Amino acid sequence: MKLITAIVREFQLERVHEALVNAGITRITVGRVSGHGVQKREEIYRGKRVLPNLSPGMRIEIAVNDEFVETAISAIVSGARSTNTVKGEIGDGKIFISPLDDCIRIRTGERGGIAI
After folding, report:
1. Tell me, what's the pLDDT at 39?
2. Predicted TM-score (pTM) above 0.90
3. How far apart are CA 111 and CA 105, in angstroms?
4. Which has the closest alpha carbon to 81: 69, 72, 90, 68?
5. Half-sphere exposure of 1 toward its Cβ, with a 13 Å CA cutoff?
6. Is the per-residue pLDDT at 87 higher than 70?
7. What pLDDT sits at residue 90?
8. Which of 33, 37, 39, 113 has the CB geometry, 3.0–4.6 Å to 91, for a possible disulfide?
């Protein structure tokens, strides 16, 4: 089992969600986050150029069995990648994959892959 965490731009969330549903992955958790990577976005505030410290984004967490890892990754990439270029743009997001030791469904007490 794996825990897939993706950070994407706010406006890409709907496309990513649609791609995941089309791939058969319907159980996700979503939350608002702020952060920054290598992208720099200048803004003008009261006539001065400023670099905002943090950019808004969306965090998507998905617990999957091992056979669905590549399916989930492909869906996230296809939904989150900017369509302007073949390789996307700086700031499209990141995907992190972590081992998931156990999963417990509180309602039934089921454990492991069946609980996902």
Report:
1. 65
2. no
3. 7
4. 90
5. 15
6. no
7. 73
8. 39
